[in-house]
Structure formats: C-alpha cells, structure tokens
What does this fold into?
Amino acid sequence: MNIRDERTVGEQVKSGFRLAGWVLFTLAFIWIVLGSTNLLLGKGEFTQPIHRLLGACGLAAASVAMFATARHWVKWFVGALGYLAIKTLFALFFGSSVALPRIWFLEFALCLGLAVALCARYLSQEPDKIEAAALVGVAVALSFTLVCDSVAPALFGVAVLALTQLAHSRKRRTRELT
It folds into this structure.
C-alpha cells in the first residue's frame, strides 16, 4: 500500500489502465470526428459520393454521442480549448508557418479565447439540452476549422454558442421574474 494513497497497488494499476483506456478512447473519438469531417468535405482522394455519405453518417453519430454525454466531457473540452488557445498564441509569436499566415493564428487564438470565456460557465454547472447542442456545434465547427484551415467555421460555432447562452439566460431571467 502506498503511504499517501489508501488504495492497494492492484487498485492503482487498474485505475491507471482505466485512465489509459479513456485517453485512447478519446483520441480515437477525435480521430473519428476529424476523419468524418475530412470524408464529408471530400478532401484528398475521398471525393466519391459514398465517402461523403460515410462522413456524414460518422459525423452525425459522433454528434449524437457527444450530445448525450455533454455533461461528462464539457470540463475537459474547456481545458482543451484553453490549451489550443495558448498553443496558438505560441505559434503566433514564436513559430513560423509557411502554409498559414500569422493573421490566421491571431484570428484562431481570439476565437478560441472567446470560446473558453463562453464555456467557462460549464465548469460549475451542467449544460442544459440546448446548451449541449450548441457545445456539440462548437466541437464540430472546430473539426471543420482544422480540416479546412479556415477560422470561419469556429467563429460560426462560437457565435451560435454565444447566442444560445444569451437567449437561454434571458429565458431563465423571465421565468424567475414571473
């Protein structure tokens, strides 16, 4: 038994395997979302209609799964958004990219920063159904942003999340007043 932990070594090993399994599952899920987005857009050699249909089905299935489990992953999503924002700022200031101009990094960092600010409320409360749908929209929009190298989809997803939160907060205030 470890001095600082009251679990046995076997329980700690099982916990480590469980954590490693969740990390691998998360990476596989991200790969499915990005791959489905790539298929849907017809990037590379995936230009046939069957590939696009497969991409649409994969993205729809992933979206349904994300919607159903939003309260479980939203806190991790906020952390991932913050990490991406910081990484983008480092790429802006210290990195050089031949493929993307510096203004793209600035736009993406600002968009991610806004997303972190909007999603920070979910660190202390669970999202409602409409908010969960908007969060799924932001996650899917980020996949389109990464596949297309365009900030527009992420900006659209963040705008939808902002409008959803604004409408939802007004609805709550109206209920509280009556």
Observations:
- The longest helix spans residues 9-41.
- Helices lie at 9-41, 49-68, 70-94, 102-119, 129-148, 152-177.
- The chain has two domains: 1-68, 70-178.
